[in-house]
Each structure stands twice: as C-alpha cells, then as structure tokens.
Specification:
The protein has 472 residues and is of the alpha/beta class. Helix content is 37%, strand content 21%.
C-alpha cells in the first residue's frame, strides 16, 4: 500500500513538473539565451561541424555566417551571457546528445568568470538552463550548479520562479501571441552601434588589476577537455579582443600568459585576438561597448579566425544549399554566378574607391539583399569612412506598396546603412542586408555614398530595374 502511494506521488510530481516546465515561458520575459537553445534544437541532428561556446564575448565576436561559406562547414554559436566553464561543461554534455561537432571554439573569458557565490550571476544561470529541454542531464546540471533547494526549483521551474508575473496579464498575452523567429545569424548577436568615449571612461574605472583562474574553473576546464578528447573533438581556445586591452595591457598580457600556459599543458591551440588588436585595425568604431565587438569588429575578427582555422587545417566540403543572408553568397563565392546584376562598370567614388558591380538577391519572400562589389586590392578600412544610403523609386503602379505615410507622400523609400566591408578572396563587398517590400519594379534605384570625413556626396543612379523573384 505504502509503495503504491509512493509511486503515485512520484508520478504526479513528474506530471506537475512537466506542465510547470512548459508553462514557464508564458510567465517569463523573452531572453536571448532561451532563443539560442531553441534554434539549436531545430538544427538537423549531427550536421554541425563546429560549435562556438563561451560568454557574450563569443556571441558578439564570432559570426558563423562568415565561417560557414569560407570554410565550407556548418557552425553555430551557442554562447550565452556570462557563461563560465562549469556551465560550458554541462552545456557540452547537452550538445553531444544532438550534435557531433569536430571542433569547439571556446572563448577564454569563460575561464575567467568565477562563481563568487551561488547567487552570483543567478539570472544568467537561469537563462542558460531555461532554454534547455527537460531531461536527466538538465537535472544533473542544475543539481551541480546550485546547492539551495530554492534555487534548484527556480532553475527547473521558471513558472514557479516567476510567480510575480502570474497576474501580469499584459506579459501573458504578449507571450501567448509571441512567435519565435529563428536567429538569422546562427547564434551570433549583430549590433551596429558604436561605443562612446563616456562609456570607455566609466569602464576604465573598473578595470581589474591581476588575472588568475580559480581552482573550480580549472577543474571544470580539465573535465571539458577530457570530454572533448573522449568524443574526438578538437578544441580551439580563443580570447576575443576588448577595447580595454588598449588601456590595461599589463592585465591582458597576464591573461595571455595564464591562458597560454593552461592550453599548452592540455596540448590545445590558443589564439588571443588582443595580441592582434593593431594588426586587425581595431579601434573604438569596432565596439558597441568597451568589451564587445559590434558588427564591423566582429566581421574583422571572424575573417581573421577563418584564416587561422584554415592554417590549422580546419575546412570542410559542405556547400550551402540555401542562401539566407548576403554572407552566404559572399563568403562561399557563389556571388560570382548567382543573383541579379543591376549595375556593372566603374563608378568612381574617389581616387582609390570604385563600385564595380551591384547585385540583388531575393533571399526570402518579399525580401531582398543588395550587394555592392568594390574594386580589388582596396584597404577595407577606407570604406568604413563612408555612410551608404539606398533609395528605391517604384514604378507608378507599385507606389501603393510603400508602407509609411511619409514614403507614400514622397513616392519612394530609403534605407541608410553602415558600410561594413566584407573580404572574400581579393574582393571587397558591402551589403544592404534587408529590403522588405512587395515592390519589384523601379524607375530608379539610387545609391548614395557619403564621405563622413569630408561630407562629400556621390550618387550611383541605376534606371529601370525589375527584381527577379525566386520566392513566390
């Protein structure tokens, strides 16, 4: 009788936990880490060749779209905010249930992050676990990361943890209506803003003085390495560049030496991009805050990582079968024979800059990318001085598809964009990532090139353009 009651209690507890786990997202704020795990689970099983792991320094620095076409592999960035090596170890156990990567690129800051107490980074620990499927592995990871019963329950049951939101009708309605849109950048976080001098000054006040790894992190790093060796996974340890490097070189030299020693002891490859800071042409315009690269900086570092991985023999034979972003065309060199050419020639911007070609790609239904090819042998940093504006003047019958009152009144739409150079082979490209429109016939497309140093303007005017639609 007692045994029967016991099993009934266990059964009902499992049922309650199951439903409480799936109710969790309804009462939780939407967070990046949860979405990244959701997208990871949607990747076809055992198709990823390379996985990026670590903290926000990884997901702000390494763009899989640059890596995949360049190396003919498939990669994904599964880094989460303030993830330390203990979390990375348990995350890797979860990854290996679904994927069998040949390479892990681990960003080294994850080794620096210590657990000062169980409450330290609590929200970030919850975020990392919230995205994972309920399983025995998740139960074990939770049990190892938390000591208190309260935190274990809160980690496993966001429904319970977020009890303050039970009466938040606005949040509940928002979450019930929410449809998750897959991250177009395979886990990479694209940010185009630039850090301000004031943010740098404030950050400098909190710079650390000495660098070291604590014993628990070293213990879990060893476990992480052993798990990779057991599964025949090559580890590349990287350290993403930060703007603080310029103001605290002694600290980052310590970080380089300490990380290099640990990697040598484990026979691992280590690449520190702070040591390549000047060679890569990094400066304030490459960061969105003092620690994290923006899209311009991440493009430079990702392209540099491609060269480093090629030098280590890390390449594949996969070809992209579905082109979703301009990077897919550019880095795989498919741009040479795909897309629609709407301009070809020599449009002179100044003595050293020319536009050689403009192509349009229908990447999704009613969504296009415009890719501009510059002259060969160009210093990519020269392009960064320019702002680019794209103006689209539809034929009269397509004016109705303009979406704002302002555009309907002036009968055209415009998009300003950053001129972020992308290098593939000897060619340099810039791209308008996304034009969402039902229009596909234009009297004129005008590309404005604005020299932000001299304030000079140049316009490439392209007449009578009809976009080829590949998505119906």
């Amino acid at each position: 009788m007692i045994r029967k009651i016991f099993f009934k209690c266990v059964f009902f507890t499992i049922i309650i936990c199951f439903f409480a786990n799936y109710l969790g997202p309804i009462f939780s704020e939407t967070r990046r880490g949860v979405g990244v795990w959701n997208d990871f689970y949607k990747e076809p099983k055992n198709t990823l060749d390379l996985v990026f792991m670590g903290s926000s320094l990884s997901y702000s620095s390494f763009n899989p779209l640059v890596i995949n076409g360049s190396l003919k592999i498939k990669s994904y960035n599964l880094a989460t905010a303030l993830q330390n090596i203990k979390q990375s170890y348990y995350n890797l156990l979860e990854i290996l249930k679904y994927q069998s990567p040949k390479t892990i690129v681990l960003e080294a800051y994850t080794l620096d992050i210590s657990d000062l107490s169980e409450e330290n980074r609590l929200g970030f620990k919850f975020e990392n676990l919230d995205g994972q499927k309920l399983s025995l592995g998740k139960l074990k990871a939770t049990n190892q990361q938390f000591k208190s019963f309260k935190n274990k329950i809160n980690a496993l049951l966001p429904f319970v943890r977020n009890h303050n939101n039970w009466g938040n009708i606005e949040l509940i309605e928002k979450n019930l209506e929410y449809t998750h849109i897959k991250n177009r950048f395979l886990g990479y976080k694209l940010v185009k803003t630039k850090v301000t001098s004031e943010e740098v000054k404030e950050g400098i006040k909190r710079l650390p003085l000495t660098h070291s790894f604590d014993d628990e992190n070293l213990k879990y790093f060893k476990k992480f390495v052993e798990l990779c060796k057991l599964n025949k996974i090559r580890i590349i340890v990287t350290r993403a560049p930060t703007l603080f490097y310029k103001y605290n070189k002694d600290y980052y030299l310590q970080a380089y030496k300490n990380t290099n020693e640990v990697c040598k002891a484990n026979d691992l490859i280590y690449i520190d991009y702070n040591q390549k800071f000047d060679d890569l042409g990094l400066d304030m315009t490459c960061f969105w805050d003092p620690k994290h690269l923006n899209y311009k900086g991440a493009t430079k570092v990702s392209e540099s990582l491609v060269k480093d991985l090629k030098n280590k023999g890390i390449t594949g034979e996969k070809t992209i079968t579905k082109y979703n972003e301009p990077e897919d065309y550019i880095y795989s060199n498919a741009i040479a024979n795909q897309g629609q050419t709407i301009f070809k020639g020599n449009f002179l911007i100044n003595d050293s800059l020319k536009i050689k070609e403009v192509k349009v790609f229908n990447i999704r239904k009613d969504e296009y990318s415009v890719v501009v090819k510059m002259n060969k042998g160009l210093n990519p940093d020269l392009i960064s001085e320019f702002g680019i504006g794209y103006y689209f003047y539809p034929i009269d019958s397509h004016v109705q598809f303009l979406e704002t009152k302002k555009d309907l009144k002036r009968k055209y739409t415009s998009i300003g964009d950053h001129s972020i150079p992308m290098s593939s082979g000897n060619n340099i490209y810039i791209a308008l990532r996304s034009l969402k429109t039902k229009m596909n016939s234009f009297k004129t497309i005008k590309i404005e090139i604005h020299n932000q140093t001299t304030n000079d303007l140049k316009y490439l005017v392209i007449k009578d353009v009809n976009f080829n639609k590949t998505f119906d």
